[in-house]
Task: inverse folding
């Protein structure tokens, strides 16, 4: 099955067919109302842990180390992805929102990657096992 997950900044306007709009930041953006952002949900649990974010913002770890540790947090806590996976399955699309100015440097591309991976894994687990291939002609 194909799933559509978009990544946007909070300043970008809502569109009609973008599915559930979920803010995935640990902190609420200043001077913004829920109505202004046209949010369906604010989900903090899928964002990087406060300790990891602090290390990265203080320059104690590199971008590569941050990415590896964040992927590890998501891998070690797959239950954090479940609400987002439910949204994309139910609505057919999901828009992940962040208050960060540089969306590509935000953790959202990593989160999107992990959600899509988890959805594919579930889809594969739900399928019936394929019948074993026939090897009869292989040895003729």
Result:
């Amino acid at each position: 099955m194909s799933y559509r997950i978009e990544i946007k900044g909070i300043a970008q306007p809502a569109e009609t067919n973008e599915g559930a709009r979920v803010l995935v930041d640990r902190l609420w953006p200043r001077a913004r109302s829920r109505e202004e952002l046209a949010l369906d949900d604010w989900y903090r649990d899928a964002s990087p842990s406060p300790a990891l974010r602090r290390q990265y913002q203080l320059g104690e770890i590199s971008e590569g180390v941050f990415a590896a540790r964040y992927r590890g947090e998501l891998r070690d806590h797959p239950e954090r992805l479940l609400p987002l996976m439910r949204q994309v399955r139910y609505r057919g699309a999901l828009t992940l929102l962040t208050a960060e100015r540089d969306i590509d440097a935000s953790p959202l591309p990593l989160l999107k990657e992990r959600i899509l991976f988890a959805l594919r894994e579930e889809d594969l687990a739900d399928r019936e096992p394929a019948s074993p291939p026939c090897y009869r002609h292989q040895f003729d």
